[in-house]
Design brief:
2 domains, ten-stranded mixed beta sheet, 13% strand, 14 helices, TIM Barrel
């Protein structure tokens, strides 16, 4: 791709072809960009590059809502939001240590669509659908067709009901908020009949990439839930947080939801303390508390995003030196079979005063 010099606003001619933000979230989701050529055209980048993207997009297709594209810098091939969704030919290069299932989730499966990795919690893979296809996604090759659809929820719910150690249910995917409000309501109504479930957690990227999803129907569903509810958002860069996202977060908080943010440390996106400090400040101003900073899960096709542990620990140390503790996410790595996320201690250089 040919980056431009400096930053440019999206020209009016391009804006005219973009979809308005007052469409329903379902319509916006249906009209998301799904081809490399359309993405490059929207950003004024060299269309010839799309040919190099096609093979990578064949193995894991491009999908990105217009609301997210509008936050990218026009003409900038190095834009940190674009890099997260750009089908890079590097994805096709084999890399030792990278696999289709880096967290051995198939071994953690206890029922169709149900994963039990850690004590007291169960993760329900509610759907394979996402609003955006992040190129570093550790579930990019997950067998959703076998494990995540409504008819199979019965098996997962039965397993949760019979295991009284499960106090928290995590709705994941894909992205659970791509489900309609009625399907979400049916699921949580069934969960509400299981007495030992005490908390609900929702992992989602939609309030960030498609904030229109936080509509009256979703808020009404959240308000009637019988448990304390935590929503873990996923933003990796401060440029992802705009006025629409802040408004969506305000509606979620007003519905009584505790909001956390988790990020992935990504080379070329947020692999410096200044970017991460700006992200923490941005999400906090939106009413969201920084939670985790994940080291990359080594899924096949994502090696070009990896930041070595020694560098990650140095960045985490510099971040901790810049911010108050409540704004510093915990640097962690998930390891298959471990009883919890594994913390990586920040590195503070000698004489840093930290």
């Amino acid at each position: 791709m040919r980056p431009s010099k400096g930053r440019r606003m999206i020209p009016a001619s391009i804006k005219a072809r973009q979809r308005p933000t007052d469409l329903s979230w379902q319509r916006q989701l249906a009209e998301a960009i799904s081809s490399p050529a359309a993405l490059l055209e929207a950003l004024g980048l060299d269309p010839a590059v799309s040919a190099a993207m096609l093979e990578a997009a064949d193995s894991f297709r491009v999908r990105v809502p217009w609301s997210y594209v509008r936050r990218m810098r026009y003409g900038d091939a190095a834009d940190p939001l674009l890099r997260q969704v750009f089908a890079d030919p590097q994805e096709l290069a084999p890399q030792a240590g990278y696999s289709a299932d880096p967290l051995a989730e198939q071994a953690a499966r206890t029922a169709a669509g149900l994963l039990q990795k850690f004590h007291g919690r169960a993760l329900l893979v509610t759907t394979g659908a996402c609003a955006v296809h992040c190129r570093y996604c550790f579930r990019r090759e997950f067998p959703y067709a076998e494990q995540a659809d409504t008819p199979r929820w019965a098996e997962a719910l039965a397993r949760i009901a019979e295991d009284r150690s499960i106090e928290e249910v995590i709705l994941s995917g894909g992205d659970p908020l791509t489900l309609t409000d009625s399907r979400l309501g049916s699921l949580t109504q069934a969960l509400s009949r299981i007495e030992h479930v005490r908390r609900l957690r929702i992992h989602t990227r939609l309030p960030v990439v498609l904030p229109a999803r936080v509509d009256d129907g979703l808020v009404a569903w959240l308000r009637q839930l019988p448990w304390p509810t935590v929503m873990v958002l996923h933003a990796n860069h401060a440029n992802e947080i705009d006025a629409e996202v802040r408004a969506a977060c305000a509606r979620l908080a007003a519905a009584g939801v505790t909001l956390l943010n988790q990020s992935v440390l990504l080379k070329g996106v947020n692999d410096d303390a200044a970017s991460l400090a700006a992200l923490s400040a941005s999400v906090f101003e939106a009413g969201v508390l920084p939670y985790y900073l994940h080291q990359l899960d080594r899924v096949r096709g994502a090696a070009h995003f990896e930041v070595p542990d020694v560098e990650a620990r140095r960045i985490a140390g510099e971040l901790a030196a810049r911010l108050p503790g409540y704004l510093v996410p915990r640097l962690v790595r998930e390891q298959a079979g471990a009883p919890s996320k594994l913390p990586l201690a920040p590195h503070f250089p000698a004489g840093s005063g930290c």
